[in-house]
Amino acid sequence: MSSTIESAEHKALRTAVTGLGQRYGREYLTRVAREGGHPDELWADAAKLGYLGVNLPEEYGGGGGGIAELAIVLEELGAAGCPLLMMVVSPAICGTVIARFGTDDQKRTWLPGLADGSRTMAFGITEPDAGSNSHRITTTARRDGDDWILTGRKVFISGVDIADATLIVGRTEDARSGRLKPCLFIVPRDTPGFGRSVIDMELQAAEKQFELTLDEVRLPSSALVGDEDAGLLQLFAGLNPERIMTAAFAIGMGRYALARAIGYAKTRQVWKEPIGAHQAVAHPLAQAHIELELARLMTQKAAALYDAGDDMGAGEAANMAKYAAGEACVRAVDQSVHTLGGNGLTREYGLGSLITASRVARIAPVSREMILNFISHQTLGLPKSY
Question: Mean pLDDT, the chain, as a whole number?
Answer without folding.
Answer: 93
